[in-house]
Design goal:
The structure holds two protein chains of two kinds.
Chain A lengths: L2 E4 L1 H14 L5 E9 L2 E10 L12 E3 L1 H13 L3 E10 L7 H6 L5 E8 L2 E10 L6 E8 L23
Chain B lengths: L1 E4 L13 E4 L4 H11 L4 H4 L10 E5 L2 E3 L14 E6 L1 E3 L1
Classes of the chains: A alpha/beta, B alpha+beta.
């Protein structure tokens, strides 16, 4: 199983952004490095969900221009965009068909379930080569302060959060 | 020749290269040459109908190319065509 190391600070920011965005989906980019030793997330860019109206409750959009700017800022700090995080309000932290359709290979996709405004489970995965789904990856956090947030989650593919 | 700049997720399909030199007089032709050099990119950039996937955005020398209009945009010598994904889900 792939693994991704996420700094405690970054993980807290990911979960906090989900809570702040509730009942809408919150999203952003993971910044870090990928090398022989694996992937490490050292920071995040929390971004505005560009979906409009009620769609923000079940869908998120980060526009290309936002990604371009984040990539340039990350590069100036010696980092790169290594993935995406978003939240599922009142829904499990499992990728949907929509997540799969829009996913890119190589990126880590971190999802946090937010129940009643409180962050619950955080999971991560990468798109399979054939785009059929995601391979779960284990989250390792630096200081163990987030024990219990690395559950063994069996993803059930094809589960939609909502229509559209 | 022009240069296509690939985002990190697609570089493994281009032997790890970020910049790829391409031939073609239009953006569409440049993309076709990119697919010819690295066929593994095709499934991630184009759908079964041969259309660019909706999350693929093209920036030619800093200006965004409207999706569907690639064939009519000239790819000049020394141009940089950056592929930038929008990211969505839910």
């Amino acid at each position: 199983m792939n693994k991704v190391a996420i700094s405690s600070e970054a993980l807290e920011q990911i979960r906090a952004h989900g809570e702040l965005s509730y009942p809408d989906e919150g999203a952003g980019l993971l910044l870090g490095k990928t090398g022989e030793g694996g992937r490490v997330v050292l920071g995040v860019h929390s971004l505005e969900n560009r979906r409009e109206g009620e769609a923000r409750r079940k869908r998120y959009l980060i526009e290309a221009a936002q990604i371009l700017r984040s990539g340039e800022q990350a590069e100036s700090k010696g980092l790169e965009v290594v993935g995406v995080f978003h939240s599922h309000p009142d829904h499990p932290a499992q990728p949907s068909d929509t997540d799969r359709e829009w996913a890119l290979p190589w990126y880590s996709y971190v999802i946090t379930s937010v129940e009643g405004g409180m962050a619950q489970v955080t999971t991560s995965g990468r798109l399979r080569e054939d785009r059929s789904g995601f391979e779960e990856e284990r989250i390792e956090s630096g200081d163990g302060a987030v024990s219990g947030l690395n559950p063994v989650v069996r993803w059930r593919q094809g589960r939609e959060q909502g229509a559209g | 020749m022009a240069t296509v700049v690939l985002p990190a997720p697609l570089r493994p399909y281009a032997l790890g290269n970020k910049d790829v030199a391409v031939r073609g007089e239009s953006v569409r032709e440049g993309l076709a040459d990119l697919m010819h050099q690295y066929p593994g990119l095709e499934g991630h950039l184009f759908n079964e109908e041969g259309e660019l996937r909706p999350f693929v955005h093209l920036f030619l020398d800093g200006e965004e190319v409207t999706q569907g209009k690639e064939a009519g945009v000239t790819l000049g010598e020394g141009s940089r065509l950056m592929l930038v994904p929008s990211i969505a889900g839910g």
